[in-house]
Design goal:
The structure holds two protein chains of two kinds. Chain A is α/β, with parallel strands linked by helices. Chain A contains six helices and ten strands. In chain A, helix 3 packs across helix 4. By secondary structure, chain B is mainly alpha-helical. Helix content of chain B is 72%, strand content 0%. Chain B has 18 helices and one strand. Chain B is globular, with a radius of gyration of 25 Å. The chains are: A alpha/beta, B mainly alpha.
């Protein structure tokens, strides 16, 4: 589903050359729940943005959903973002002027899936059926993140990318969000979660550790895959 | 607790809690009482308000209907019909919004304007036709309401189209057509009074918002030519006083045109006021854009919106909503600035009043009354704007983070 071959992202900041990504090779299949682990500045977010076509690599080839995005035109990139990848952010980034339901509907409309998807049902699926008419500021952090996940899911896109999705949430709420993300992988989506929190990597099918723009380890979590209920923050 | 006991407790807690609080209360009461005593005595007994009633229609339409401007005809009906069209627009707004603020404004405008039909002038000064056309504002607002309610015109799109049509109609009506009998042209140099202030303000407001948005986006552009042109425009128009720009518009701009080229001072003034205001508007909107959380644009981009879609659907609406107070402040300041057109010998409400006092020696002593009244007129309009903006903000606050 996701294929990266020799991907690098170098740029100059003043006189210093920054190597955000350095020769990254990666394959992620449908239904895999992958946690990308590493300290700040290790290149996690750059990796996510390149997979999501929000950023372009300076070298290497990236293909997502069978489409080579390194050679894609601007309009093909828009189409890819609309129809293949969905993002979830640390600070939720819901649109403040729209209700929970309208936020989800907006995602559906942009993806061009109106009619194929019922926004109410998606909101119901993340457990917020009764909060449809509420505005983001009337919801708790966990609820906002669930709306954001509903907005991402409603597009029916096969790749789900999450950048520190539990970063602003307390332990219990964070655990619920992670459960929801694992469910999406069971639903045959490729799910990538970026975090600096090593504990979260215990629940992954596969952990990718990054440091200074390189992948330093790739494999199942040490000690085997644990259920969310065993996480200790 | 008895009401009197409760009042006493309130006074004790709020006005006389400590010795210095008591002293402040007493001093304030004495000061306020003195000001009110002398102020009200002057307003009701000493002041001579006859200058206002003598000026009368001159304040509203300037010299539009004097013999020199409109020879051999009575042209007063033309601004009056323009006013009716305007009230009908308010009525349409009310019909579309269905009530609330728009309803209150529409009815308020119609009632206040119609009340002028009851002014205690003699019939020879203010004829029955004038009074009837003023009173017709109430039917006009209802007609606009019915139009929006019972015809397909009742949508925001049609209201916007109607606004443009009415604006052009009003211009045509005021300007006149030499081919049509009874609609003889009135030279624009004779348009004046409050009508001129409002005309310039409406053009300035309607023009400076879109131009300001364009400039704000241009200044954030990554294209160096676009960016630097916008920066230069903004800095030049913000850096020069409006009064200088107005003066330049009639003294310097004509040098670029052939002699006897019919340059219109009202158009010059409208263009200068619009450009001046849009430079400030651009900076207000740019401030709003900069204050946005970057995550909003990021989320929109990740959903697959193109750059311009992100700007139009996500960033701009939020930015504008956040700077409504600054935008309305700019509108208020623009409206007050329209009185500066006296520098290019246009006779707005302030200019014509000053000219009147200078030309009529018997009113020389009435400066105070005149300026206080003018201040009140400007205050009524600007307060109206700020009231509307506050209500809009309240209505938009539902989605605030």
């Amino acid at each position: 589903m996701i294929d990266l071959a020799g991907v690098s992202k170098h740029y100059r900041m003043g006189t210093v050359e920054v190597r955000a990504l350095d020769d990254v090779n990666l394959h992620v299949s449908d239904g895999e729940f992958v946690v990308v682990l590493g300290p700040s500045g290790s290149g996690k977010t750059t990796l996510l943005n390149i997979i999501g076509a929000l950023d372009t690599p300076t070298a290497g080839r990236v293909s997502v959903g069978g489409r080579d995005i390194t050679a894609a035109s601007r309009s093909e990139l828009f189409a890819l973002r609309r129809q293949t990848v969905s993002f979830i952010f640390q600070s939720f980034n819901l649109f403040p002027g729209l209700t929970a339901l309208e936020n989800v509907e907006f995602g559906v409309d942009v993806a061009g899936k109106r009619g194929a998807v019922t926004p109410d049902a998606v909101l119901e699926a993340v457990g917020l059926g009764d909060r449809a008419g509420h505005f983001p500021h009337e919801l708790s952090g966990g609820e906002q993140q669930r709306v954001a996940i509903a907005r991402a899911l409603a597009t029916r896109n096969p790749v789900l990318l999450a950048d520190e999705p539990t970063g602003e949430l307390d332990f219990r709420t964070g655990a619920q969000i992670l459960e929801l993300l694992i469910d999406q992988a069971s639903d045959n989506r490729a799910v990538l979660v970026v975090t600096h929190n090593r504990e979260i990597s215990r629940i992954a099918d596969r952990v990718i550790e990054m440091s200074s723009g390189r992948i330093v380890s790739d494999g199942p979590p040490a000690g085997g895959k644990a259920p969310v209920s065993e996480l200790r923050w | 607790m008895l009401p009197s006991a409760r009042a006493e407790a309130w006074l004790r807690a709020n006005l006389f809690s400590t010795w210095y609080n008591s002293a402040l209360t007493v001093a304030s009461v004495v000061l306020l009482g003195t000001v009110l005593w002398y102020g009200l005595r002057w307003v009701f007994f000493d002041a001579n308000w006859s200058v206002i009633s003598t000026l009368g229609g001159l304040m509203v339409i300037g010299r539009y209907n004097v013999e020199a401007a409109c020879p051999g005809q009575d042209c007063l009906w033309r601004p009056q019909v323009s006013l009716l069209l305007l009230t009908a627009l308010f009525g349409m707004g009310w019909g579309i919004a269905g009530g609330g603020l728009t309803k209150r404004i529409a009815i308020g405008v119609a009632v206040v304007v119609s009340a002028f039909a009851l002014l205690p002038y003699g019939m020879d000064t203010m004829g029955m036709d004038v009074r009837l056309l003023l009173a017709a504002n109430i039917p006009a607002v209802l007609a606009g309401w019915a139009l929006a309610r019972y015809t397909p015109l009742g949508s925001p799109k049609w209201l916007a189209i109607s606004c443009v049509v009415v604006f052009l109609l009003i211009l045509l009506l005021l300007r006149g057509l030499s081919q049509v009998p009874g609609l003889q042209p009135v030279p624009v140099t004779e348009w004046g009074g409050l009508m001129l202030n409002l005309l310039l303000a409406v053009i300035g407001i309607a023009g400076s918002l879109p131009i300001g948005i364009g400039l704000a986006l241009g200044r954030r552009s990554r294209l160096p030519v676009v960016k630097s042109m916008c920066v230069v425009f903004i800095e030049v128009f913000r850096g020069v006083p409006l009064i200088t720009l107005l003066f330049m518009s009639v003294r310097i701009v004509p040098l670029a045109f052939p002699e006897n080229f019919p340059l219109n001072p009202i158009v010059s003034a409208a263009v200068v006021i619009t450009l001046f205001s849009s430079a400030y508007m651009a900076e207000n909107i740019r401030g709003g854009l900069q204050a946005l959380h970057p995550g909003q644009a990021e989320a929109a981009r990740a959903l697959g919106l193109a750059g311009w879609q992100t700007m139009m659907l996500i960033s701009l609406p939020q930015a504008i909503r956040n700077v409504i107070p600054a935008i309305v402040g700019q509108f208020i300041s623009l409206f007050k600035d329209t009185s500066l057109v006296y520098i290019i010998s246009l006779q707005d409400v302030v200019g014509i009043s000053r000219a009147f006092i200078r030309g009529n020696v018997e009113f020389l002593a009435s400066h105070k009354e005149l300026y206080i009244f003018l201040a009140l007129v400007f205050w009524v309009f600007t307060y109206g704007m700020s009231y509307v903006s506050r209500r809009i903000e309240q209505n938009l606050r539902i989605g605030e983070r």
